[in-house]
Design a protein that fits this description.
The chain is α/β, with parallel strands linked by helices and 200 residues long. It has a single domain, classed as 3-Layer(aba) Sandwich (Rossmann fold). It contains eight helices and eight strands. The strands form two sheets. A six-stranded parallel beta sheet has the order 2-1-3-4-8-7, with helices on both faces. It has a two-stranded antiparallel sheet with strand order 5-6. Strand 5 and strand 6 form a beta hairpin. The longest helix is centred in the C-terminal third of the chain and has 16 residues.
């Protein structure tokens, strides 16, 4: 399946989930499908989307939290799976877009691109619910169960590499503006105070 197809299915099943996107393809395609200003886009911090999402999940345990990760970002921080397993956040769903390459940087191949099974790695780290899905129909069929099941839940989305397809990143949500958009959205959604009286 194409990454864009997978994101369309996820968007249809999002509900009230707070979404954190890894930089690159995952973020670009989520934005292309949703134009979601109440999602957090982890630009400039490759590998840390899962850790950020775990922090949110632990802090807001009654709110579903999704991380839309990528194979490259996950590989830079595989230790996040051990931490997720140790914390056992019931509200966390960890999706990984696995296209076997660094698509946004000249399609460089992933290390061990034909042999890595990230779902197996997640199970080995202690995440009992870890599956691979490779087509949009199955993803659509399984999403109600994924949403209903307690986390942590790891879902490897096996997607096609698209060497000729380079969607430009949505620069209109970069840096401080992106932080404030997300923070204000969380204040409205959760009724919490994110920023102090001076706006920081």
């Amino acid at each position: 399946m194409k990454t864009n197809e997978a994101m369309k299915v996820l968007a249809a099943h999002r509900g009230e989930a707070v979404v954190v996107c890894a930089l690159g393809t995952a973020a670009n395609e989520w934005w292309a499908v949703t134009r979601s200003e109440d999602s957090f886009y982890m630009h400039g911090a490759m590998g840390f989307a899962a850790s950020f999402a775990l922090g949110l999940a632990v802090t807001i345990p009654d709110t579903p939290v999704w991380v839309l990760n990528s194979d490259g970002s996950l590989s830079m921080n595989l230790g996040c799976l051990l931490t997720e397993a140790g914390q056992q956040p019931n509200n966390l769903k960890h999706f990984v877009v696995d296209n076997q390459c660094y698509q946004t940087v000249s399609n460089m191949p992933m290390v061990n691109q034909d042999g890595a099974d990230y779902a197996a790695i997640a199970r080995g780290a202690g995440i009992n619910r870890a599956i691979t899905i490779d087509n949009p129909l199955e993803l659509d069929r399984r999403m109600p169960e994924i949403n209903a099941a307690p986390g942590p839940y790891f879902i490897r989305l096996r997607v096609d590499a698209e060497p000729e397809y380079q969607r430009p990143p949505p620069f209109n949500y970069e840096g401080p503006e992106m932080k404030y958009r997300f923070g204000r959205a969380m204040e409205r959604k959760l009724g919490v105070k994110v920023f102090g009286p001076t706006g920081f």
